[in-house]
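thought: fold this chain, then report.
action: predict
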Amino acid sequence: AQALIAEQVRQSLQLEAEHPVDVAIEGGPVLLQAIGGELERVVVAVPDLAVGELRGDLSLVVEGTPLDPTQPTDAVQAVFEVSEADVAAVVGALSGAIATDVRLDEREIRFEVGFDLFGVPFTIGLGLTPTVEDGELLFTPSSVVLGDERLPVDDLQEQFGGIVDPLLAGQRFCVAQYLPRALELTAVQVGDEQLVVVLQAADVALDGPEFSTLGTCG
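observation:
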C-alpha cells in the first residue's frame, strides 16, 4: 500500500522514479482499514522538491483515502517548507536586484540591496511580507532600513522618487503551474527558519484529473 501511494504521489507531482517519497499509514491496523474500504490517515513526505524557483520539503496529510483511487478523498493538506537558504536563492528575482544578507526575521523576508543615485552608492534593507492573493504568492515590501533608520515604504519613495519603484513593487509568484490543480493555495507565513506555504484540497479523487494535471496561472 505504501509503495502504491508513493508511486501515485510521484505521478501527481511529475517526479523522477527515484525521487524519495516516504509514506506512513496511520490509524488502526491497515487490514482492518482495508476491510472498511478506506485508509484513515496517510502521511507523505517528499524532500527536496522543486516548485519553480522555490525548493523545499513537502508534507502531505491525506484523510479518508478510499482504496479505489477513482473515488474522492475526504481531505488533503499540503505543507511546503522552504529553508532560509533556499529563500535566499529566489529573493533576487523577487526584488529585481542583487540581494545580500537574506534572512527570515519577525515574519518578514529581510535582505539588503544596493543602488546608485546620481553616482552615489546606497545600500538599503528591505523586508518583504508574503500573502496569498488570487491563488498566488504576493511578496509586498513592508519595511525599509536606510542606514540606522527604519522608514515607512512611502517615505523612501518620497525621498528617492521613481528610482526605487522597482524595488518597492510587489512581486507575484505562482505555484499552481508546478503542482496538481486540485491543491489550492490557502496560506503562507514566514517562520523563524522557514517560509511555510499551505495548500488544501477536499473531495477529490487521487487518481482523477485534478491530481494528474498541473494547475495554471492567471
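thought: worth noting. The two ends are 37 Å apart (CA to CA).
final: C-alpha cells above.
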